[in-house]
Design brief:
Layout lengths: L19 H34 L6 E6 L8 E7 L12 E10 L2 E6 L10 E3 L4 E3 L6 E3 L4 E3 L8 E2 L1 E4 L2 E5 L7
Antiparallel strand pairs: 1-11, 2-3, 3-4, 4-9, 5-6, 6-7, 7-8, 10-11
The chain binds FE2/S2 (inorganic) cluster.
FE2/S2 (inorganic) cluster binds next to loops.
Length: about 180
């Protein structure tokens, strides 16, 4: 060993080993952070996924007095969706084509085309429902006449209660 050589630098101090108390507090802080994160996340995820699991209620909605409809005519009626969101406003309103087939018999067709859901229009002169989006055509009984619609126009159950025509709201199947 060279006596004139400068002394070797001191070894760096060893990192302090955490005491059991500090280790315990560190783990507790991790566990508590996880619990708080879960408590904040689970309700939000549940709220976002709830429409997937919630069943649409079916509700009878009044659409007008029976004596205001003429036998043989098909008219557009508006009613409130069965499960409107509190903030939906006018978007909670939906519609149907209502036909008075006889004095005591009504038929209600969905306004939504079975292709991609565009609103169909009743053309009385042609006795057809026409879809403006891709040229879908339905006969007066709702069966497909031409175009891409894969199925007949869905119908809503209809009843007359105390002189009032009511439509049973239901989810409308779209292709
Ligand atoms: S949405 Fe009606 S034909 Fe396409």
């Amino acid at each position: 060993m060279d006596p004139t050589a400068p002394p070797a630098p001191p070894a760096p101090p060893a990192p302090p080993t955490p005491t059991p108390r500090r280790r315990f507090l560190g783990r507790m802080s991790l566990v508590l952070s996880g619990v708080i994160a879960a408590a904040a996340t689970v309700p939000v995820v549940g709220f976002l996924l709830s429409p997937l699991t919630r069943k649409t209620p079916r509700v009878w909605r009044p659409v007008g007095r029976a004596d205001t409809f003429t036998v043989g005519q098909t008219v557009n009626v508006v009613f409130e969706d069965a499960s409107p969101l509190p903030w939906a406003g006018v978007t909670a309103r939906t519609a149907a084509w209502l036909r008075r087939d006889a004095t005591d018999r009504f038929t209600a067709f969905s306004v939504h085309c079975t292709h991609l859901g565009c609103p169909v229009r009743w053309v009385a002169d042609a006795q057809l429902f026409l879809c403006p989006c891709h040229g879908g055509v339905y006969y007066a009984d709702g069966t497909v006449s031409a175009g891409p619609p894969p199925r007949t126009l869905p119908q809503y159950p209809v009843r007359v209660r105390e002189g009032q025509v009511e439509i049973l709201t239901s989810p409308i199947p779209i292709a």
